[in-house]
Amino acid sequence: xxxxxxxxxxxxxxxALRFLLFSAFPRxxxxxxxxAEISTPVTSFKRxxxxxxxxxxxxxxxxxxxxxxxxxxxxxxxxIPPFIFPLATTVLYILTDLLCAESIIQIxxxxxxxxxxLFSSPRKDNHWDSLAVGAAFLFDPFTIxxxxxxxxxxxxxxxxxxxxASSVDRKPSKSMLALALAAYISLYPALLLPPLIxxxxxxxxxxxGSKPELPRLSLELSSIFCGSLAWFLAMSYMLxxxxxxxxxxxxxVHLLLPDLTPNVGLWWYFFIEMFDSFREFFLGIFWLHLMGxxxxxxxxxxxQPLFVxxxxxxxxxxxxxxxxxxxxxxxxxxxxxYNHVFPLMRYTFFAxxxxxxxxxxxxxxxxxWIYAGSGNANFFYAITLVWSLGLSIILGECLxxxxxxxxxxxxxxxxxxxxxxx
Length: 422
Prior knowledge:
With about 425 residues, this protein is mainly α. Helices cover about 70% and strands about 0% of the residues. It contains 19 helices and no strands. The chain has helices at about 5-25, 30-35, 45-55, 75-80, 85-110, 130-140, 140-150, 155-170, 170-185, 195-205, 215-240, 245-250, 250-255, 265-270, 275-300, 305-320, 325-335, 350-370, 375-410. Helix 16 (about 305-320) packs antiparallel against helix 17 (about 325-335). About 40% of the residues are buried.
């Protein structure tokens, strides 16, 4: 098999940059690990180390109310000898980033974002090279900062991308297994199941040969997903001494929000101010809001399931209970697949300026609140609202551009003309 020298150079450059940052700035990873913008209570590498210490000393890591991550991480990291732990984790996270990039490149090479079984964009010839799409992910500052901080969200992002790439490659069983792993780690990726099944169906039917009916395929793939997830949970049950206590800590923390540590999301401040008598009601409302987009997007954008997946991932970056810039980096990694509709976006400069504004001022506002004592929680929450606003504008603009692209096929005479909503 011929070696793609450009891809090797890309991967080598990305790995070298990360190794350089790890070695030249040895205090930087620990600094970023403590940042609220990158590490959350459910993904923090520092909390993983605390749980690992308890696990290796035969103490349940879920007793102290500090460790909220999946049990399978514990034996994985416990296998690493202490004297090479920093180097080994560095290599592990760099390799995970490279695997993410490989999945993104595979998705880009398929061209499914521009031309699928049920839809072909009139602008499909205007696209980036697949390596350029991979480079946009590998050299994204958010991706690099996430790699240096080493949150466990890196692994769920990798599983999501691998699931999408496997669907595109017509390997539905691998796709369901990868999605089950992502849901096992972070819970919320389970909402990606409906559009992923649609993507698998379109790819299988588009290949020719046998054409399974959508209801039957949905039942089969859902069974594989549920069976894989059950297997991961059973393994966790055995690792935790045949106890189910990890369920409340690992998944209950997402559903019940017991830890209100500040992050870039919208939930923490709202529930700090919430009266306890209304807490359960608004928890239900927030989760219904997060889940409510899935059905509508799958129905309206049935012809473009990959874009449905991309949009839902963007919604996760805004509205999930414990978001971080790792979730935003995953969304930004998939956006270049749709660069053919970028010219149809109207407020790109305003959206990017808002993201840049929040990125630069977020750490400053957090410092004023936590360290300088010259601000309060409103300072940091205000800048997280700006961050969410920027992501929302990008999300809405991409949705508008894709719908406009569809509409111009039905109304070719409107191509290039302004559209006003009446």
